[in-house]
């Protein structure tokens, strides 16, 4: 099976060969036709010149007229002339000429026969090693019974020799260019296809458990862009695989405890003791409820982390903030406030942001002060690079969060200090972070012991949307 590199090179060379052949053949044919037309024009001009000389000579004998013509019409390069009288070669130019025809009896007989009708004849004679283009014009003189013929001829091969030499030079240069093109094409195609070859080799080495292989990127062309895209895809696959592996490990660890508890109590339960049966039943249902919460949160986290896990639409952030505050007020008897709302329309998933803010509100109720105020707000601010950012936050009172705990609080199954509500799965804040990251942002916490905590969802805003924001504040 031919490789792509060989096919590309073969196609390039085939097209190049066809182009070189077509251009060389066309140029050669055009030059050849021009040369032959020039020869025919020269022959026609010499016949006219011969007629003029014959008319002006004033001679009354055919011999004298033809002698005058042969003497005055001097052959040029690759040319000769001849006068035939009564079927025999009679007069030829003196001195050196490139070739002669007076000794070729067959040619003399041919011309005599062709002009027997009294018409000017143009023809081509192929001799061994020579092609002759000639014109033969009958010549007669009043009062002289002899029949004469004036012949002018060109050595066509000699006339075409410059064209032939040019074609030979073209062929040699074309072959050299063809070889150079082949070498350059082989090197360039290899360079361009190297990332694809590396991609194939990397794909062959990648396994379901290891996608750490990356393809080196060199250059800034389309194939290099493809390599970067594939590397980005491998980065996402590796991230998804690591997250999946970590989630499965954590889930296995988290489910092991309730399963062990339920199994242990069932094994130790006395079926004859009604109180023991009832107590074990209550404990098993409680553990199963806890596992149900865990499975539900795992499903939510997996959904958020899917590439198409968000449904974005233009949302009025101020209205969204007020809706979340209204919904959160049903969680507890705290005083709920919205000190600030961002008057901006942003393309977000309203449902997912509401879920994240309510999760933060539930955390504030569970871990914050028993009474007091919980704030839910939003604002538009500037990032470190000057870009517009949308910040949504939930601030509550309470004991706050230790500095070392803040660094790990958004990790999966990382539980804070015991709250006053139902024990969670440890995935709530991980879900909040996943929702923020799915929007291209992040989630952070700011807290000091004894002064409560502020959880913030920080999202980027496209410039077109940021233009609707009149304020520039931060929580």
From TrEMBL:
Its main location: membrane. It is an enzyme of class 2 (transferase). Its EC number is 2.7.13.3. Residues 190-242 form the HAMP domain. Residues 250-463 form the Histidine kinase domain. SUPFAM superfamilies: ATPase domain of HSP90 chaperone/DNA topoisomerase II/histidine kinase (SSF55874), HAMP domain-like (SSF158472), Homodimeric domain of signal transducing histidine kinase (SSF47384). It catalyses: ATP + protein L-histidine = ADP + protein N-phospho-L-histidine. Keywords: Kinase, Membrane, Phosphoprotein, Signal, Transferase, Transmembrane, Transmembrane helix, Two-component regulatory system. One of its GO terms (molecular function) is phosphorelay sensor kinase activity. Residues 1-27 form the signal peptide. It holds the Pfam family HisKA. InterPro entries: HAMP_dom, HATPase_C_sf, HATPase_dom, His_kinase_dom, HisK_dim/P_dom, HisK_dim/P_sf, Sig_transdc_His_kin-like_C, TCS_sensor_his_kinase. It is found in: Cell membrane. It comes from the Bacteria. GO terms for cellular component: plasma membrane. This is histidine kinase. The lineage of its organism: Bacteria, Bacillati, Actinomycetota, Actinomycetes, Micrococcales.
């Amino acid at each position: 099976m031919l490789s792509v590199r060989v096919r590309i090179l073969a196609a390039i060379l085939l097209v190049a060969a066809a182009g070189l052949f077509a251009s060389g053949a066309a140029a050669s044919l055009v030059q050849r036709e021009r040369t032959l037309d020039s020869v025919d024009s020269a022959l026609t001009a010499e016949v006219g010149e011969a007629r003029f000389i014959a008319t002006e000579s004033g001679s009354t004998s055919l011999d004298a007229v033809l002698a005058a013509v042969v003497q005055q019409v001097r052959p040029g390069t690759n040319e000769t002339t001849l006068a035939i009288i009564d079927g025999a070669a009679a007069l030829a130019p003196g001195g050196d000429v490139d070739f002669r025809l007076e000794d070729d009896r067959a040619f003399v007989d041919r011309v005599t026969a062709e002009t027997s009708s009294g018409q000017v004849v143009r023809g081509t004679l192929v001799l061994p090693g020579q092609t002759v283009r000639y014109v033969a014009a009958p010549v007669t003189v009043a009062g002289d019974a002899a029949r004469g013929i004036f012949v002018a001829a060109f050595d066509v091969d000699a006339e075409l020799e410059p064209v032939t030499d040019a074609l030979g030079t073209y062929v040699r240069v074309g072959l050299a260019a063809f070889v150079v093109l082949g070498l350059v094409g082989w090197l360039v195609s290899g360079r361009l296809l190297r990332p694809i070859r590396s991609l194939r080799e990397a794909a062959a080495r990648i396994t379901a458990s290891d996608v750490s292989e990356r393809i080196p990127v060199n250059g800034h062309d389309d194939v290099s862009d493809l390599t970067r895209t594939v590397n980005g895809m491998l980065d996402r696959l590796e991230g998804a695989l690591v997250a999946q592996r970590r989630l499965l490990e954590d889930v296995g660890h988290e489910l092991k405890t309730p399963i062990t508890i339920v199994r242990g109590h069932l094994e130790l339960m006395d079926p004859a003791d009604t109180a023991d049966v009832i107590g074990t039943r209550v404990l098993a249902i409680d553990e199963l409820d806890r596992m149900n919460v865990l499975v539900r949160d795992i499903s939510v986290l997996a959904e958020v982390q899917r590439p198409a896990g968000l449904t974005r639409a233009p949302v009025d952030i101020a209205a969204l903030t007020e809706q979340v505050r209204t919904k959160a007020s049903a969680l507890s008897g705290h005083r709920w406030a919205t000190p600030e709302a961002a008057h901006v329309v942003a393309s977000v998933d309203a449902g997912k942001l509401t879920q994240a803010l309510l999760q933060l509100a539930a955390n504030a109720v569970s871990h914050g002060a028993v009474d007091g105020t919980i704030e839910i707000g939003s604002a538009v601010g500037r990032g470190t690079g000057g870009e517009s950012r949308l910040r949504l936050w939930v601030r509550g009172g309470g004991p706050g969060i230790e500095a070392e705990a803040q660094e790990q609080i958004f990790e999966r199954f990382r539980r804070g200090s015991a709250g006053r509500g139902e024990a969670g799965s440890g995935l709530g804040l991980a879900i909040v972070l996943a929702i923020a990251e799915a929007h291209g942002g992040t989630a952070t916490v700011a807290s000091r012991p004894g002064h409560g905590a502020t959880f913030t969802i920080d999202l980027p805003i496209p410039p077109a949307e940021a233009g609707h924001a009149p304020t520039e504040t931060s929580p």
